[in-house]
Amino acid sequence: MSLSRTQTTFAPPVMEARRWLDGVTHPSDRPLLNVSQAAPIDPPPAPLREAMAQIVLDDPDAHLYGPVLGLPELRGEVAQKWTSGYGGAVKPTQVAITSGCNQAFAAAIATICGEGDEVVVPVPYYFNHRMWLDMSGVRTVPLMTGDGMIPDPDKAAALITDRTRAIALVSPNNPCGVEYPSETLHAFMDLTRAHGIALIVDETYRDFDSRAGAPHDLFADPHWDDTLIQLYSFSKSYRLTGHRIGAVVASKDRLAEIEKFLDTVAICPNQLGQRAALWGMRNLGDWLAGERLEILDRRAAIHDNFSTLAGQGWKLLGCGAYFAYVTHPFGMSSADLAPRLVQDAGILLLPGTMFMPDDMPGGESQLRIAFANIDREGVETLFDRLAALSY
Fold first, then answer.
1. Which domain does 152 fall in, by range?
2. Are residues 244 and 358 in the same domain?
3. Are 36 and 73 within one domain?
């Protein structure tokens, strides 16, 4: 008997990790530090919540089906801000709104790949991308990252076959946090265009990039949409995680294909979430700038305090956006270490094995720390607890 689509992949890692908490109690003087998931737990800022309440009360269209590709005003706002922010030309007809960024990825893959096709993905990878490729009958071709956890376009070129349909990148990266240099992304654009395949760039965490100005110049290419598919999420920027609002920026022709996928899955994106995202884009620029500075301070706290662990053999492989990616010094796999940390240190994080194929080395020594919900003081507490461990 053949496997079902869902049986071809693994269990959701974040949900698996949460099960490690079952039956474990945490003393009041050592509460749980949950650094397993890169999603803010705070609600949207009060002005946005007030605006959302008014939308619920006063906008009857917010309770109805809407356009499959999203609210026209929101598509237009994204196009305008991307055009000014990236120094290129993006039209509203090149923007679609999706039910979260994961759906944006799923929709893009549905328009690119058929059964048995291949997508090149840098490793460590974002596990939900791997899961969707598995469930789509698409082979994930792992590309080991090099120095600084940056993928090498030349090594990617060697992996391209006649079944390759895309290369998928995430920058700032999940799980490693690193920001891919503009030159690297440009080289991948040249590579994918030369082979007639798509370049997917997931920029979920773009609003927390440490660099001033545009993180790349891909949209400055007047023909960017013959190759580039960009993904984005409003969840992290405006704390709208539960409202599931993302975006995909691509050619008008590709969005016509994406519309088929979206119409059969969700019909339209969440109407309240779309209006909230639009209100946030128009009114929360200063607030978002402050959120970025806070995340950058937490990133700085990782670097400032990592000496606490470095002297014991820990290494910091990457840091940025919501993530620090580290190696541990213990003589056990991270798959065994991570569950023990819940009981022994009151820490919930994810092992590197969740971001790697089973047959590739490296993940057993790696851990991902997601610092979306711990501040500078929380980083210090986390490192003190890790430094106290001895296995």
1. 46-283
2. no
3. no
- Give the strand pairing for 366-370 and 350-351: antiparallel
Element (H, E) at 259: helix 252-265
CA distance 288 to 52: 17
Domain total of the chain: 2
Q: Which of 219, 249, 283 is the last residue of a domain?
A: 283
338 three-state secondary structure: helix
Asked if 219 and 52 touch (Cβ cutoff 8 Å), the reply is no
Q: What does the longest C-alpha to C-alpha distance in the chain come to?
A: 60
Residue pLDDT, tens place only, 159-214: 999 999 999 999 999 999 999 999 999 999 999 999 999 999 999 999 999 999 99
**Whether residues 216 and 314 fall in one domain:** no
Do residues 302 and 371 lie in contact, with contact meaning Cβ atoms separated by under 8 Å? yes
SS3 state of residue 117: coil
Q: Could you tell me the two tokens for 59? A: 């906008």
- Residue 1: inside a domain, yes or no? no
If asked whether residues 227 and 163 sit together in one domain, one would say: yes
Q: List the one residue out of 245, 322, 320 whose CA is nearest residue 38.
A: 322
Is 0.90 surpassed by the pTM of this model?
A: yes
Residues 355, 323: contact at Cβ < 8 Å? no
**CB contact set of 104 (below 8 Å; sequence gap of 6+):** 96, 98, 231, 232, 233, 246, 247, 248
